[in-house]
Amino acid sequence: MVLASGTHGPLLESGWLLAIQVVLITTAFLLLTKPSQNPRREVLLLSSIVLFTAALRVAMEPLPNVQPVTMACLVAGARLGLRRGVAFAIMVTLLSNMVISDGWWTLFQASGWAMVAAAGAKFLNSEGVLNMRNLLYLSVVTSLLFDWWVSLSIIDSGTTFSDFMLYLANGFIFDLLHIFATMTFAMWLAPALSDLISEDATLTESVLAVGETDVVLG
After folding, report:
1. Which residues on adjacent β-strands are paired with residue 2?
2. pLDDT digits 0-9 by tens, 23-53
3. Most buried residue, 43, 44, 105, 141, by CB count within 10 Å?
4. Angle in degrees, CA 138, 196, 185, rounded to 5
5. How much is the pTM?
6. CA 130 to CA 18: how far, in whole Å?
7. What is the pLDDT, as a whole number, of residue 37?
8. In this structure, which topology does domain 11-211 adopt according to CATH?
């Protein structure tokens, strides 16, 4: 199973990597099978923000722990709901890691960002209005908790508790960079991303309402 120990955790054989990818893809698929009133528009919207977020993460990869995914997962959870927010987190992780680096840590990153999306769905979904103050608070908390969660991927049979604590301490500066980056992206991109999703939902509801009226009048 394990080939060697890498920077982000154990390096796995290709068969195990494929198994992780299949599990994540299947999970995302199951989350997206819930019936939708306008599946084509929903698929287009979700695909667009997944591609944009993944591309931006890849473009900013040279900057340590500076990426937009945590912010995007918070907004996606708040605007798309729990199921599609979690699916968004999984798809962004898989797509961007195909370019950046894929491994055992992908499972931790995908599940970590899924939990961030769940936090967005739980604490930011307030009648279509994005509460920027709460978003900034959650940016701090979720960025830190995400980094700690992903740090679990480095643990193997030879890792001691003191080794893990030292690893966390050495990475604290990168945790601060992640927090700063998430807050910056929240102020810079979150309102536009939220408006994009909200406007699409409003348009969908309007189209459906017109269609229903046509049916009734006919």
Report:
1. 12
2. 999 999 888 887 666 667 788 889 999 999 9
3. 105
4. 40
5. 0.85
6. 38
7. 61
8. Arp2/3 complex 21 kDa subunit ARPC3 (1.10.1760)
Tokens of 65: 């722990």
Q: Where do we find the tokens 């307030």?
A: 126
Residue type, 129: V
Query: In whole angstroms, how far apart are CA 79 and each of 66, 88, 131?
Result: 23, 11, 12
- The owner of tokens 């608070």 is 137
Q: Which alpha helices (H) appear in 66-160, and where do they start and end?
A: 69-80, 82-97, 105-123, 132-151
Residue 183 near residue 139 (C-beta atoms within 8 A): yes
CA distance 145 to 150: 9
Q: Alpha carbon of 193 to those of 71, 122, 124, 172, 185: distances in Å?
A: 10, 18, 14, 29, 11
Locate 5 and state its tokens: 């120990």
CA dihedral 119, 125, 126, 130 (to 10 degrees): 90
d(CA 35, CA 39): 8
Distance CA 137, CA 119 (A): 12
Q: Name the amino acid, one letter, at 118.
A: A
Task: Name the residue with tokens 């709460």.
Answer: 134
